[in-house]
Amino acid sequence: MKIAVIGANGQLGSDLVAAFSGNEDLVSGLTHSDIEITDLPSVGQALEGIQPQLIVNTAAMHHVENCESEPEKAFAVNALGPRNLAVVARKLGAALMHVSTDYVFDGSKGSPYEEEDNPLPLSVYGITKLAGEHFVRAMTPSHFIVRTSALYGKSPCRAKGGLNFIELMLKLAKERGEVRVVDSEVVTPTSTAELAQQMLHLSRSDCYGLYHATAEGSCSWYEFAREIFTMTDTLVRLEVAAPGEFPAKVARPKYSVLENRALKDLGVNLFRPWSEALHDYLGNRVKSPSAESLP
């Protein structure tokens, strides 16, 4: 299959390129220098030259605080960008697989969100990502919308200064010997390597629609950090951060757990418990040069 992966140098995009290439697909990895998704002519020019059968979009404006201060830019990237991709995908007869987020929910449910639950985003980031979903649904019937949560992977996450949560925790432990982490936000840490394999598997079908795609189970950020330190035998004093110790500049969902109901109904859910994926990541972990260079 001919596949175009947009955001190919990102944390998820790099694992997607590896997954599709390992499946012997013909993959074109596109970065911001190759395509400007906010510009329809740029999207058309880049993709018409490739003629892909599947377009996978991981490009987004992820930084929640920056989205809040630059809502027009966030809307252009997170909403109009997917619209442009959907328009061109339909023109080319290609399917579009678009990555979305758990931040389309407000976190008040208290139990895992399923695909049919009503979205109610709290932030500009969540609002613009939800708008992107609506554009994709409206502009092309041949679409997969994949919502995921709390990603980590071997490639640097530029939106988070190059470090994912795991690398940040290990860095802070080494430098300070003490780490304080919030226990008030519940998530599902999800490996980009596992997500890439799930997206590859889903792409082989024509079961278009909305999918939640995260690891199984959930934990607080504090519990995630504790498991990281336990698995790596890291000597560190880990404590729960006091209420208000790390005040959020932007409202975030307190409970951000997704249920992979649609994948399970199709019998194609590949995800394992989050702790098993974390064990694999740590076992294969190689510190990246970009992580070493951070202060």
Keywords:
295 residues; alpha/beta; Rossmann fold; 6-stranded parallel β-sheet; two-stranded parallel ribbon; disordered C terminus
Q: Output the helix-strand order.
A: EHEHEHHEHEEHEEEHEEHEHHH
Q: Give the CATH level 1 class.
A: Alpha Beta
Give the second-level CATH assignment, the architecture. 3-Layer(aba) Sandwich
Q: Please tell me the overall pLDDT.
A: 90
Instruction: Round the Cα radius of gyration to an integer and report it.
Output: 19 Å
Structural class: alpha/beta
Q: Reading side by side through the largest sheet, how are the strands ordered?
A: 2-1-3-4-5-10
Q: Strand-residue fraction?
A: 15-25%
Q: In words, what does this structure look like?
A:
The chain is 41% helix and 16% strand. It is an alpha/beta fold. The strands form 4 sheets. The chain has a 6-stranded parallel sheet with strand order 2-1-3-4-5-10, with helices on both faces. A two-stranded parallel sheet has the order 6-9. It is globular and about 55 Å long.
